[in-house]
Amino acid sequence: LFGSSATLFLEASQQDVSQNKAAEKAITQKLSIQKAQNSKPKYQWKIVWRNMIAFAYLHLGALYGLYILITAAKFYTFLWSVVVATFAAIGVTAGAHRLWAHRAYKAKWPMRVILMLLQTTAFQNHIYEWVRDHRVHHKFTDTDADPHNAKRGFFFSHVGWLLVRKHSDVINKGATIDMSDLEKDPVVVWQRRLYIVLMPVFCFLLPTWVPCYFWNEKPMYAWYSTLFRYTLSLNLTWLVNSAAHIWGMKPYDNTISPTDSYSVGIGAFGEGWHNYHHVFPWDYKAAELGNYRTNFTTAFIDFFTWIGWAYDLKTVAHSMIKKRAARTGDGSIYTRTDDHDE
Ligand code: ST9
Ligand code: ZN
Ligand code: ZN
């Protein structure tokens, strides 16, 4: 009896051991699968070679354009480049950004048409696409759903995001963004439909033709200065996504990546006060402080308000800004909450 129960016990414990081993194996297998899944990048880079080549050409052409502008082109061609760059910038800042993306003010249709044509000159995608990406950027800042997620480094947030397919989170979470206001604006709808014609005309053909026709510039010089003007405007805009999400002060919210940066502020026509802007995105000034020199876009909107084409400008009460800065800011301004002067 003793012998047979011992055998039974032995068998049972052998069974236990083999069961344990099986369970252990299953767990190890599961863990290794999990490990593989974790170490496998959640997202595979898919390079878009068309964009890679286009941006390489643009940047090389722009360098040559700069050389031409300094050494060989007519002075008027240089002035013209400054004028076109300014117009294009206003189309992005006052148009795509403050008006259409954030609804920070309202504009009558003639102003919307002007802004649409200026925004077309900037070729940063049509308004609908620009706004969709930008609203997604604000809603999901610094996550995979942010089209130019600054957590992925300077290069990605600057230009890299335009060289690869978007992260699936951008598309899936982006689908939750309400775009119905833009679908109702005929100026935006028509720009989107005609973009394939309007964009080449306003960004490249007209700006190159004007110097040739009006002051006999050499077509090649005019072309390369166009490349310079376009590429420079792109890079100044991209700095808001890269530099102004990496370096600078955070007077209003210390927990987010956007910063207030004087140099980007000037270069980007008043769009570099980016810590403020992410905290109070509906403010038509996109900044708390500063003047027209540091915020040319505000001067532009104020002028159109004066002639009656812009209206319902939204701002933020000084007391509210102060309270927020005292609560979440980095202490660079407004560390006291006890004085409530307006
Ligand atoms: C450029 C834009 O440079 C720059 C924007 C900068 C913004 C800065 C903001 C800062 C403030 C303002 C500062 C102004 C300062 C100005 C100073 C000036 C001196 N949500 O995109 P696709 C869906 S552009 C929801 O093709 P891929 C959607 O269904 C430069 N859904 O993705 C879409 O289909 P559809 C010139 C979204 O295939 C579909 O996905 N332009 C969203 O991964 C496919 O979308 C270029 O170089 C979303 N956010 O390709 C072109 N996104 O559209 C660059 C997508 O039909 N773009 N979906 O509804 C491309 O080639 C491609 O988009 C890609 C991605 C390769 C980058
Ligand atoms: Zn931002
Ligand atoms: Zn914004």
Overall description:
This protein has 342 residues and is an all-alpha fold. The protein has 14 helices and 2 strands. The protein has helices at residues 2-39, 49-71, 75-101, 109-122, 127-139, 154-158, 168-174, 180-183, 186-215, 219-241, 262-267, 274-279, 296-306, 318-328; strands spanning 106-107, 310-311. Strands 1-2 form a two-stranded antiparallel sheet. Helix 3 (75-101) crosses helix 4 (109-122) and helix 9 packs antiparallel against helix 10 (219-241). The longest helix is centred in the N-terminal third of the chain and has 38 residues, at 2-39. The chain is globular, with a radius of gyration of 28 Å. The termini are far apart. Residues 1-10 have low confidence and may be disordered. The chain binds stearoyl-coenzyme A and zinc ion (2 copies). One zinc ion (ZN) is lined by residues 97, 101-102, 134, 138, 277, 281. Residues 48, 51, 89, 92-93, 97, 123-125, 129, 132-134, 136, 147, 162, 165-166, 170-171, 174-175, 177, 233-234, 236-237, 240-241, 268-269, 271 line the site of stearoyl-coenzyme A (ST9).
Identify the notable features of this structure and list them briefly.
mainly alpha; two-stranded antiparallel ribbon; disordered N terminus; 342 residues; binds zinc ion; 1% strand; binds stearoyl-coenzyme A
Describe the structure concisely for a colleague.
The protein is mainly α and 342 residues long.
Strand content: under 5%
Strand order, biggest sheet?
Answer: 1-2
How many H/I helical runs?
A: 14
Question: Describe the biggest sheet?
Answer: 2 strands, antiparallel
**How would you describe the shape?**
globular
Which small-molecule ligands are present, each listed once? stearoyl-coenzyme A, zinc ion
Q: What helical percentage do the residues reach?
A: 55-70%
Any idea what the radius of gyration is? 28 Å
